[in-house]
Amino acid sequence: MKSTETIPGAPVIPPRPRRSFGKWVRRTGWRHLVAWLAIAFALIPVLWVVSAAFTLRPTISDTNLIPQNPTLENFTTLLNNPDQPYVKWYVNTMLLAAITAVFTVMIAAGAAYAFSRFRFKGRKVGLMFLLLVQMFPQFLALVAIYLIMTQVSDIFPALGLDSLLGLGLIYLGGAMGINAWLIKGFFDTIPMEIDESAKVDGASHGQIFWGVILPLAAPVLAVVGLLSFIFTLNEFIIAKALLQSPDKLTLAVGLQQFIGTKYAENWGPFAAGALLAAIPVVILFLFLQKYIVGGLTQGSVKG
Amino acid sequence: MAELVLTDVDKVYDNGFHAVKDLSIEVTDGEFLVLVGPSGCGKTTALRMIAGLEEITDGTISIGGKVVNEVSPRDRNIAMVFQNYALYPHMTVAENIGFGLALRRDPKAEIREKVDKAGRLLDLTSMLSRRPKQLSGGQRQRVAMGRAIVRDAELFLMDEPLSNLDAKLRVQMRAEIASLQQQLGITTVYVTHDQVEAMTMGHRVAVMRLGELQQIAPPQELYDNPDNVFVAGFIGTPPMTLFHADLTVGADGTRLRVGTQDIVLQGDVAAARPFLAAASGGEIIAGIRAEDIYVQEREGFAPLEISVLLSEALGPSVHVNFLLEGTPVDEGRLGSGLASAAENELNRLGQVSGIEGVAAFPPRMNFPVGSRMTAWIDTARLLFFDVESGRALR
Q1: Looking at the whole model, is its pTM more than 0.80?
Q2: Residue at A5 is within a domain
């Protein structure tokens, strides 16, 4: 049907003037530009790594974003080198990251519960102390950590130098403060009446913590766990200092050898290794995404 | 089911605030006791001490004959309903109601049976699998009640459970809670600041002020025979009109001088109040309820010149705020904050001082603001209080 038919007597509506292109750019267009820039900024490095992983002997300067002759050669090199046991590093790193993440969440949540719900001597001082300690990056203490670890090695080698367990313990210590603060902030938003109600219902502190508070805090726990996992995956300096045997390295330290020792020759396997390392993080993100949505406490009290 | 006894209970907070002073209350088995008072009077603190959520500084609390001072909340066998319901958001309605039972490790079938029963009782059957987020305020309130009911607790504690509901729902839930309590026969302590809840729900009402128990009595008794000026002014909506008066008991009868006017008590009214003779020649505080002030003369009534400050037609009656020449009762002594609203109104109208009062007149009558009129008070319904202690003269 034609919409331009005129009804007699109806007021004539003048056609809308065409907006000029310049005006569109000023109003809306520039936002598109910013968005596309941001997308390019985020995706080009990823594309480059993907491309490099499938290109034979890529160089930094002349790798195309789309590989000319895709090949799996880099992956076979990566997986079949007995001097550089990539699979072993992979398993090391994933186990270390997973265990560190789980324990970081548990320890930080426990501390946060105490700081949020109990009133005890030294509570405020303790909170401030945690924050203060957090102000300094962990690798400032690298020398001290190294010295301590050499001494620990003498007494209890399983936790000392060149031990993933020891490294994990150091990560746990470093992650405590900020995560306890983060989780405490979330716990503080859960109404005290919920605890009290559970208390009257017959729950012990442990039951309140596990059965009521932790499920409600799932979003923040997911965030803390994820951040901790990624931190462990990326951490280089401390791992580099403490780990020595080739079969005990983490991915960050191990992959660095590809490009650290014979520069430019091994970008291919490096990119392939990095690509494989990213997969668990992506999966974890997808899995935790639904928990990272807040608002779970809605509806407990009047809303 | 059990009786609850508080003996000289004190609560002093760490910052030195004395929230509850020497509170002694006995609640008999199956009784519904309402704790009422203005905010900050210690009623919620008292309830939390009974629940065990707050430590007792001094005195003893016993439930069912057993002193529970050192017993943790979970072992007191009580159920509590909170002002904001405090439902567990991550659990369904059924899980919320059955949480206490699950903690006790009751058999699953038994829990389901009890939850179903409570659901039927509270009309929640169709919502058992929903989460609190999906419920309306009234339904959440009922879930909170259900959580208390299933536990077969010896004692129900309720902390202003209706204050978050809208007016209509509040009226409905008020009746439901009262009848539920009667049905179950569980000893209940109910905290509120709402006059109507206090008057309608409880077997007895305990009025608190600044941490002290003022009076504990059945609602009508509290209304008719308040023990002191505070209770007189606090209980009742609209509040009682209270004023200073000079009392003379002489050969020509018993006279109350208010400002420049005299209220004369007739022979039989005066004869029924022999205690007035002792206070003769001095100042007393007198009080009269709004519904005991009339527009027309009747036998035994005394006239009083008043000027109309404000008239509110409520439907069944017209509430007239009036000003009466004389000395008002000191708000500090009254301590309920009732006079402040009136004072604001006074300042707005640019008038100086006088006695602020309220009368409930018949409907469909016109009382122009600022007009002067003669009101008639039923002298037989006048209440008298000592001017120093504020205690009732009887």
Answers
A1: no
A2: no
User: Which range among A283-297, B24-38, B244-258 shows the weakest confidence by mean pLDDT?
Assistant: A283-297
Domain count of chain A? 2
- Please answer yes or no on whether B82 and A298 come within 8 Å at the CB atom: no
In a domain, A10, yes or no: no
User: CA-nearest residue of chain A to B75?
Assistant: A202
pLDDT at residue B339 is higher than 70 = no
Q: Is B225 helix (H, G, I), strand (E, B) or coil?
A: coil
User: What CATH number does residue A101 fall under?
Assistant: 1.10.3720.10
Domain hosting residue A290, numbered range: 76-298
pLDDT tens-digit readout, B68-114:
988 988 888 899 999 888 899 889 999 999 998 998 888 999 999 99
In terms of domains, do A53 and A155 share one?
A: no
Q: Is the pLDDT of residue B331 over 80?
A: no
Q: What is the pLDDT of residues B135-155, one digit of tens each?
A: 888 889 889 989 888 888 889
Looking at the fold, whether A37 and A135 belong to one and the same domain comes out as no
- A116 with A234, same domain: the answer is yes
Q: Are residues A67 and A130 in the same domain?
A: no
Touching check for B53 and chain A: CB below 8 Å?
yes
Domain boundary among A11, A44, A71: A71
Q: Are residues A110 and A62 in the same domain?
A: no
pLDDT digit string (tens) for B208-222?
988 889 999 999 999
**How far is residue A37's CA from residue B316's CA, in Å, rounded to a whole number?**
71
Other Cβ atoms less than 10 A from the Cβ of B378: the count is 17
- Whether A3 is covered by a domain: the verdict is no
SS3 B90: coil
Residue B235 has pLDDT above 50, yes or no: yes
Which residues numbered 6-25 in A keep a CB inside 8 Å of some CB on B?
A: none
CA A188 to chain CA mean position, Å: 24
* Residue-level pLDDT at A262: 55
Query: Which residues of chain A are modeled with pLDDT < 50?
Result: 1-3, 295-303
Cβ separation A302–B140 shorter than 8 A: yes
A55 within domain boundaries: yes
- Residue A230 and residue A147 share a domain: yes
Q: Same structural domain for residues A97 and A147?
A: yes
| Chain A residues within an 8 Å CB radius of B84 | 191, 193, 300-302
Round the CA-based radius of gyration of chain B to a whole number and report it.
25
- Are residues A66 and A180 located together in one domain of the fold? no
Beta strands in chain B, from DSSP E residues, in sequence order: 4-12, 18-27, 32-36, 58-63, 66-67, 78-81, 155-159, 187-192, 204-209, 212-217, 241-250, 253-258, 261-265, 283-288, 293-294, 301-313, 318-324, 355-361, 372-378, 383-386
Residue window 98-157, chain B: list those with CB within 8 Å of chain A.
Answer: 99-100, 103-104, 131-135, 137, 140, 147, 151, 157
CB B215 within 8 A of CB B390: no
